[in-house]
Design a protein that fits this description.
single chain; 69 residues; mainly alpha
Length: 69
């Protein structure tokens, strides 16, 4: 695993973890409700979809596109 792909994995994992914590805090302190575990953990499903489905995408899916083409 090269440094760029490792960095990308860490950023995606951090974003999923941060979104999960933020969503739980919003439910607890802003909305004052207790939702189900599945609703609180919903951002993690996006991470697992990325984790297990990312390797099946073509290489060109990771390349940024330029608007000048």
């Amino acid at each position: 695993m090269d440094t760029d792909s490792f960095r990308r994995e860490v950023v995606v994992a951090s974003a999923a973890a941060g979104a999960t914590v933020a969503l739980s805090l919003v439910f607890e302190f802003v909305l004052a409700v207790t939702p189900s575990f599945y609703l609180q953990a919903a951002p993690l499903s996006v991470y697992f979809l990325y984790l297990f489905g990312h390797g099946r995408l073509p290489d060109r899916a990771d390349q940024p596109t330029s608007g000048s083409e």
